[in-house]
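C-alpha cells please, single chain.
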Amino acid sequence: QVQLMESGGGLVQPGGSLRLSCAASGDIFRLQVMAWHRQAPGKQRELVASMLNGGSTNYADSVKGRFTISRDNAKNTVYLQMNNLKPEDTAVYYCAVAASGHATPFRGYWGQGTQVTVSS
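Here you go.
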C-alpha cells in the first residue's frame, strides 16, 4: 500500500501563488505516474497536470503557462507550483499516483485532498 500526504493549500488572492506538495510513502517500488487533479463544487474531478517517471508532463489547457508540475524521485514527492491564480482555480486539489510495490501490484492511489481558494 501507498500513502499520500498532501500539503500547501490555502486562501490566496487572485494573481497570487501557491505550491502544493504530495509525499508518497509505504511499499513503493516504482512511481510510474504522479499527478494532480481538482474538483470544484458542482463539477466533475478533472486532471490538472501529470508527470511520468521519465519526466514527460501533461497539463490541462486551463492551467498551461501558469502551473508547473515537478517531482523529486529521491523523496517520492510531487509538487504543483501554481502562479497567477484565478478564482476559477478554486477547488479541492487531489494528488494521485500510479505505483507498484515490492509486495503490491501496480495500481492507483488518491490523496485526501487539499483546499485551494482564490478570492479577494
